[in-house]
Write a structure and sequence with these properties.
Number of helices of chain B: 2
Strand content of chain A: under 5%
Oligomer: heterodimer
Structural class of chain A: mainly alpha
Radius of gyration of chain B: 20 Å
Distance between the termini of chain B: 50 Å
Number of strands of chain A: 0
Largest sheet of chain A: none
CATH superfamily of the domain at 11-57 in chain A: Transducin (heterotrimeric G protein), gamma chain
Radius of gyration of chain A: 26 Å
CATH class of the domain at 11-57 in chain A: Few Secondary Structures
Largest interface: A-B, 53 and 73 residues
CATH topology of the domain at 11-57 in chain A: G Protein Gi Gamma 2
Strand content of chain B: over 45%
Shape of chain B: globular
Distance between the termini of chain A: 64 Å
Number of helices of chain A: 3
Order of helices and strands of chain A: HHH
Strand order of the largest sheet of chain B: 1-28-27-26
Structural class of chain B: mainly beta
Chain lengths: ~70, ~350
């Protein structure tokens, strides 16, 4: 059973938890945001052609095509 | 704002000042030259009717056609979304089944809510068999279960709870393998990193924080606090290097894990209702958000603009997931129905 319930923590407990967490995070090595965003852009562009929610899907390939029924041509 | 030179600065003050001083680069600036997407409209291709009350959660099976959904009246239903047939139904002993998940094998589902537990039901091929008889209680929290997810196999489940913790459980024995403490209020959502990126997951809570955790050590590796209200949904970006969140503050946000900061906000003045659920399209170009104003807003992740607003549900959209192969997405609503949406050429 998980050992704590947040309802049992005092404000001081919560603040202490937060400060300890921030002390850990201060040591993180961070990449430049511009580099990360550039990579994100490239990742998307490599894959967007196969993304059927961006490019659309034809009726033949559509797994959720209209069920049965008659078509009047 | 300049850093305080005299007196004690808490680590929090230092962090806030540091992020304000560094330039606020966003994805949109980097993507300035990227061609915008036209306006396009996704359509509902299936409507799943059968729940007697608010749909609270849904999940896709890896076979891309089956869906499990859970509702306020305690019912959990497994659907074949191609035919809209109900394949299994089970009534939980509690109401408000806020969480449900499909096992990777497709042979079981997990669910829970106000019972403070997560239970696993093996799905029988025999439609007449009573699913409830085979139920296995796996997780026990001291408050409601808000979300659950199997890990890479049917053997472990990750849960989040109103008791402020997340936990990892062994399904067979029900043993607690690891617990995750750090949120200062209810945890509302979680998402596992794509398997290639290793053993981490992200959680979001009523403390407005999104936390990234190491599953083995139980340690919180990174945390993000830029939302102004409860975070209802978190979802990893397909590469695993970022994640999106949706909040009661009516915004969706994108956080890059390597930059360790927020890199985009998806919002409009006209959107004032909370976001209940978010998910990405296959490539990560689109971010879908289900909102409490009954709509779905579709965002261009790179440009930051809204490319579509989808109407159809007659009450809050409470849950939204893109299918495993990215061909469709499914929404569940307080209007008792689920809808499967696609984009036609």
């Amino acid at each position: 059973m998980p050992v704590i319930n947040v309802d049992d923590l005092t404000d001081k407990d919560k603040a202490l938890m937060e400060v300890n967490q921030l002390k850990l995070e201060v040591k993180l090595e961070r990449w430049l945001t511009s580099k990360c965003c550039e990579e994100m852009k490239e990742y998307i562009q490599e894959r967007v052609e196969e993304d059927t929610l961006v490019k659309g899907i034809s009726e033949e390939k559509n797994p959720f095509k209209e069920k049965g029924g008659c078509v009047i041509c | 704002p300049p850093l305080e030179t005299g007196g004690a600065s808490s680590p929090s003050d230092v962090m806030t000042a540091a992020s304000a001083v560094s330039s606020a680069v966003t994805v949109h600036q980097v993507a300035e030259k990227v061609e915008g997407l036209g306006q396009f409209v996704m359509k509902t291709r299936r409507t799943l009717k059968g729940h007697g009350n608010k749909v609270l959660c849904m999940d896709w099976c890896k076979d891309k056609r089956r869906i499990v959904s859970s509702s306020q009246d305690g019912k959990v239903i497994v659907w074949d979304a191609f035919t809209t047939n109900k394949e299994h139904a089970v009534t939980m002993p509690c109401t408000w089944v806020m969480a449900c998940a499909y096992a990777p094998s497709g042979c079981a589902v997990a669910c829970g809510g106000l019972d403070n537990k997560c239970s696993v039901y093996p799905l029988s091929l025999d439609k007449n068999e009573n699913l409830a008889a085979k139920k296995k209680s796996v997780a026990m929290h001291t408050n409601y279960l808000s979300a659950c997810s199997f890990t890479n196999s049917d053997m472990q489940i990750l849960t989040s709870s109103g008791d402020g913790t997340c936990a990892l459980w062994d399904v067979e024995s029900g043993q607690l393998l690891q617990s995750f403490h750090g949120h200062a209020a209810d945890v509302l959502c979680l998402d596992l990193a794509p398997s290639e990126t290793g053993n981490t997951f992200v959680s979001g809570g009523c403390d407005k924080k999104a936390n990234v955790w190491d599953m083995r050590s139980g340690q919180c590796i990174q945390s993000f606090e830029t939302h102004e209200s409860d975070i209802n949904s978190v979802r990893y970006y397909p590469s695993g290097d970022a994640f999106a969140s949706g909040s009661d503050d009516a915004t969706c946000r994108l956080y890059d894990l390597r930059a360790d900061r927020e890199v985009a906000i998806y919002s409009k003045e006209s959107i004032i209702f909370g976001v209940s659920s978010v998910d990405f399209s296959l490539s990560g170009r689109l971010l879908f958000g289900g909102y409490n104003d009954y709509t779905i807003n579709v965002w261009d992740v790179l440009k930051g603009t809204r490319v579509s607003i989808l109407f159809g549900h007659e009450n809050r959209v409470s849950t939204l997931r893109v299918s495993p192969d990215g061909t469709a997405f499914c929404t569940g609503s307080w209007d008792h129905t689920l809808r499967v949406w696609i984009l036609m050429c």
